[in-house]
Amino acid sequence: MLSQRNTTERPLELVIVEDDRRQRELLELLLNGTPGFYCRAAFPDAEALLAELPGLHPGLVLMDIDLGSGRNGVAAVAEIRARRPELPVVMLTVHEDSDYVFAALCAGAVGYLVKGIAPAELLAAVQDAASGGSPMSPQIARRVVQTFHVGPANPLTEREKEVLAQLCAGESYRSIAEALFISGHTVRSHIKNIYEKLHVHTRAEAVVKALKDRLIQ
Amino acid sequence: MLSQRNTTERPLELVIVEDDRRQRELLELLLNGTPGFYCRAAFPDAEALLAELPGLHPGLVLMDIDLGSGRNGVAAVAEIRARRPELPVVMLTVHEDSDYVFAALCAGAVGYLVKGIAPAELLAAVQDAASGGSPMSPQIARRVVQTFHVGPANPLTEREKEVLAQLCAGESYRSIAEALFISGHTVRSHIKNIYEKLHVHTRAEAVVKALKDRLIQ
DNA sequence: AAGTAAATCCTCCAAACGGGGGATTGGCGG
DNA sequence: CCGCCAATCCCCCGTTTGGAGGATTTACTT
Q1: Which superfamily, per CATH, for A12-146?
Q2: A163 CB-to-strand C distance under 7 Å
Q3: Of A86 and A176, more confident
Q4: Does the keyword Phosphoprotein apply (chains A, B) (predicted)?
Q5: Ranges of CATH 1.10.10.10 domains, chain B
Q6: Nearest CA in chain B to A141
Q7: From the list B82, B110, B145, which residue is nearest A110 (CB)?
Q8: B29 burial class (0-12, 13-18, 19+ CB within 10 angstroms)?
Q9: Which residues lie closer than 8 Å to B91 by C-beta, 6 or more apart?
Q10: pLDDT category, B217, cuts 50, 70, 90?
Q11: pLDDT of A155-212, one tens digit each?
Q12: Topology (CATH) of A158-212
C-alpha cells in the first residue's frame, strides 16, 4: 500500500528463507508467477543463505523462520545486515509477541509481516520495502508507534527540564551552574526537586526515566 | 493494505481538521461519498475541534495542519489524547522532516500520512488506523523503523554489559558488587573499562549511551 | 609456548554527589 | 490580601564516584 507496483522495470530480485518446504515452494511460485518479481533462490534456513550470499545480489530478503530457531532468525538478520547493510530484510513469521518483533527490528529488519497475510498484500509489502518503505502488519505497526507515545503528564517545570537535560549530558553540578548562570546550590535544589518528582534517588535513575518517558526535548 | 475495507457494519465516523477550505471540503466529499465512511464534522483548526469535542464521538480524527501552526498540530494531538485516550488521531500533512514526524508520534498520533497520497490509499489507511493499525507513508515508516536499528558493533563484554545494566538501574558500586557476587574493586575495574570503551567519563553519559545505542538487553 | 584479553582483586585520594535542614524573592490564583 | 509555588541562594556532613596506578588467574589464540 502507499506505493505503486512496478512491472515495467527490471523485476525485483529476491531470496527467501523459509523452513517449511511446502510454504517455501508456494512462496516461490507466487513470486515467480507475478510480473515484477523474481525469486532468485530459496533456502530452508539462514545458514544456507549466508553461505550462498557472496554469489547473490538480491534486492530484498524475505525471512520466514518459525518457532524453534527463534533466536536464530534475529541473529541471521544481524549477520545479513553486517555483510550487506543496504540489503533490506523483511520478516514474515508467526511470532507476534513484542519481544521477538522488537528484537528483529533492532537487529535491522526493515519490515515485519505476520503470516496469514493475503498474497496480494504480501506482494505489495515486498514492493514497498524494496522502495524504501517499511511494511508492517497493522498490529505490529501500532505497537511500534506506541513505543513513541509519551505519558501525557510531565510534572517538571521548565527550569527543571533544563537541569535534567544537563544531567543527561553528564555535566557536574558546577558545569550546570555555569551553563545556566545560577549557583551550584540552586542546581542542587532543582536536582533534589527533580529526584522527588520522579521518585528516584540517583542521577542514573533520573536519566533513564528522562529518556524512557521522553521528559526532555 | 493489510486490512479489509468494511462496508457492511456501521460506517466509520470521523472528524477532520484541515485549514485549507478547499481541501477540507474535498476530503469531506471523498469520505461521505465512500460507503463505510461518514464524516461527522470538519474543522479549520484544532481549537474548533477541541471546543466541539464533548458533543462528538468519532471513531477517528484526521488531522491535517499545514505550516505556520506546526507546533499547534502536535499540541493538539496531545490535548486530544489527554481527553480521549482511545480516540486514534492520524496526521495527514506536508511535513516530512523527522522532528515534526516524531513529535507528532510522541504526542500520540497513531498514523502519519504525507499529502499526495491517493484517495483509495487514504481510505485504506484510515480504515487501517480505525482497526488498530498504524498506517504510515513508506518513507515515514522506514524512518520510524530505523530508530530501532542498533549499531552492529557493541564493544562491551558480557560481564561489562551486566555491569552497565546495573548502572542504568542506578545501583551503587556496592549493590552491583553484591548483585554480581564480586568485590567492589572489580566493579570499579569493569566500570572504568566501560567508560573507556564508550568514551565517557560519568555514569550519566554511560547510561545515555547504553539506552540510545541499545547496548544492553 | 608465548601472547593476549577478560575477569578478578587491591591502594591512594580528590572530587562529586545526595540527604537533611533553612531562607529569600517574585508571581499568580483564590 | 494571603497563601502557594517556582526559583534562587546557603549550611553541614557522610557516601559515592572516578582517576591513576598495579597485580593475579584463567582462557583462548597464534
Answers
A1: Response regulator (3.40.50.2300)
A2: no
A3: A176
A4: yes
A5: 158-212
A6: B134
A7: B145
A8: exposed
A9: B63, B64, B73, B77, B104, B109, B111, B112, B113
A10: low
A11: 688 899 899 999 999 999 999 999 899 999 999 999 999 998 888 899 999 999 888 8
A12: Arc Repressor Mutant, subunit A (1.10.10)
